[in-house]
Amino acid sequence: MSEKINNIIQDLKSLTLLEAAELVKQIEEVFDVDASAVSNAGMMVMSNDASIGATSESNEEKTEFDVFLEEVPSAKKIAVLKIVRSLTSLGLKEAKELVESVPKLIKESTSKEEAEDIKGKLEEAGAKVSIK
């Protein structure tokens, strides 16, 4: 890859979830595209050969997990907000937006132990969490 592309990728890696979501919105507006339509179309085009590879891959043990905040009862919002802030190092405003717009990805590509720990903390605070 060129140096320019490597720099862009490094910048993207440093974005928070909220910054990445804002980037997607800006790209959609500037280039008049719909990112959700593109990802769905790619799934429809999958051939049988690709699905066979995916099946054999699923037999291997998964090592990276994503933690999703699925539901937050309004009475437990503040407690969950505090946990989300401690887990993600987001500011108060960003964490509040994340908690209020569930379902949302909280932690990406984490170990099984860390994912279970995060899930336990959030569920203890009253949130509904899933690990994928």
Describe the structure.
This is 50S ribosomal protein L12, chloroplastic. Keywords: Plastid, Ribonucleoprotein, Ribosomal protein. With 132 residues, the protein is α+β, with helices and mostly antiparallel strands. The chain folds into two domains: 3-38, no CATH class; 65-131, Ribosomal Protein L30, Chain: A, CATH 3.30.1390. The protein has seven helices and three strands, in the order H-H-H-H-E-H-H-E-H-E. The protein has helices at residues 3-13, 17-31, 35-44, 48-59, 77-88, 92-100, 112-124; strands at residues 65-71, 104-110, 128-131. Strands 2-1-3 form a three-stranded antiparallel β-sheet, covered by helices on one side. Helix 5 packs across helix 6 (92-100). The longest helix is centred in the N-terminal third of the chain and has 15 residues, at 17-31. It starts with a helix and ends with a strand.
